[in-house]
Structures are given as structure tokens and as C-alpha cells.
Amino acid sequence: MITKQLAEEIVAQTMIRLNRNLNVMDTNGMILASGEAERIEKIHEAAAQVASSGETLWVTEEDLAAWHGVKAGVNMPIFFQEKLVGVIGITGNPEELKEISTLVQLTTEMMVHQSLVTSHIEWNRKRNELIFDELTSGNPLSAAVHERISQMGLGSTTSFVTLLIELKKSSSSRRIIEQLESHFNDQIVVTGHSQLNEIFLLVESDEPAKLERKLSSLLHVLQQTGSMRIGVGIAVDSIFDVRNSYLAARNALDFGKLDQSLIYFKDVELMALLKRNPPAELNKFTSRILAGLNDSLCQTLTMYFTCNKNSAETASCLNIHRHTLSYRLKKIHDVTGLNPSDFQDAVVMHLALTLRD
Q1: Where's the PucR C-terminal helix-turn-helix domain (predicted)?
Q2: Chain mean pLDDT for the chain
Q3: What is the per-residue pLDDT for 248?
């Protein structure tokens, strides 16, 4: 069905170019929009006949006595996907309208097609957002969502993974959703907005290596649209466990570094577990472990761990002599009582440095 808003847009846009009066009627013959405002919401009997027959109807001055609420002109059916959705009428001498009537009919059907397809896509996305919201809420699913999941064939043992895309305000979310749908094609399950500047994507999971390649390729495509971060959740074996994948993707964004563009939960899992402790307790831990270390020594220690405790590589990255590095590591040992070269001590100090950042 054609909405009143769409009918008004068709009349306004077409009359500018035609300089003739247009009427758009619904499938019952009621005028939804017209260049003659007094005719709106009145029944157009000729349009009702067209809606019934599906055929174009020409009305001459001689025919007017047979119709109520009708003026001379032409009334044509509007089809969408082979279904009649309305009637378009042009007021005027039928002889003068023959050259333009078909063009007006085709143009109207194109406008209707674009609007209804866009509306259908938007409706599907809104529905997907409601489904995803229920799946991740932690509450029992409604009967409607259960039915939709069944209709989509998602009740099988297919593996799923959640992606959360954090957008900058300048990014076009609609364009990004279209790119996501194109990139994952038949793998996609649902996509939409999880927050104002955040898009969710639930897809059927690939093997880890294949998924990582696809995500790297996706990131390259999306970064041409604008700056963003992608949090990747864990794979789950059932659609009903998607909440676990969603929470993992959320933690990836929350605990990943701000300058990281692609963050896997597996890379921040330990940090996520630790940072769930009260901040005061974490501060006590980092202060106790790193007590007495100045910024220079902390920087040295961080680089030492980044280089997997390789002294030559660490010295090169810090642009210092190896003897200077050895002196600093010994001083760290003396100050903290922890040996950076010892595995267990290194784990404790690395955690303290990471939590401090």
C-alpha cells in the first residue's frame, strides 16, 4: 500500500515537472494526495474502477456524467512486485496526455519501488535489532522471537560470533551496514544498531584463521568510510548463547587499547577478568608492585616485556647500551624485590604495568 506521505511526495515531485494536476489514490479509490487540496480524502470513482480492474482508464468530458468525484484525464494502476498498490491520475484533456501518461506511470512505479524497498529493508533491520536485543538481554525470549528464529532456520547447531563496530560520529551508519551485508553476504544473520554510534553484526562463524582474514579485509574496507574500532566476541555453538559472544565483544571494546582498530576478546580476556575487581584494590596492587620505580624504569620494563625479555632487542628499541639495560633491570630488582628475568616475577610486574595503563 502507498502511504499518504509517499503519495504527497509523488504529487509534489511530479507536478513540478508536468505543470498539471496529479492525484494519487489508494486501492479503494480514496484520494491520498492531490494538487487540488479540496479533493483529498474523497472517493475517486474512476480510480476505484482502475483498482478493481488493474487497467488504465481514460475519462473524457463526455464521460463525466457517469462518474462521481472525477475530472477529465487518465487514471493508471501502480504496481509493486506485480501487486496493485495504488492509482495515479493526471487531470487534463486525454488527447494531450497520451504522450506523457506512460512515462508518468513508470516514474511513479519507480518512486514507489524505491520507497517500499527501502521501507522493507529498514523494517527488517528494526526487527533484527529487536531480536538481537532480546538475545543479549539475559531475559527469557518472547514467543515472537522464538518463532522468528525458527523461520530464519537458526535453531540448528551452527556456530555464531558477534562483532561490535564502534563508530565515530562522522561515519555513515547506513553505508557501513550495507558494506557489512555485502562483505559477509550469505554468512550474515542479523545486523543493526546496538547503540547510537555502534553497530552489531551477528554472523555464522568461520574457522578462526578464515575469520581473521575476512575481518582484516573488512577493516580495510570500513576504514575508507571513517575511523572505527571493531570488537570481536567468542564463537558460540547456539543462537541462544549469543549473549556470551556479545558480552565478549563488549569487553573487547571496553578493555582494548583505544588506538587498536581490531580487538579480539581472547587478547583482552585476562585484563577483563582482572579489571572486574574494585578499582581501589587494583590501585593497591599496582602501587605495591611498582613502588619506587620512576617513569624511566617503568618504560624500560614495559619495553623489556614487549620484546619478550630479549635484551638486545630491548636495548635497540630504547636506543641504549646493553650494559645500561642490565643496570636498569638490576635496579628494578633491587627496588621491587622482583626479578624481571624470572617468569613468575615477570608475570606479576607485567600485570601491574598493564593495569596501571
Answers
A1: 297-354
A2: 88
A3: 93
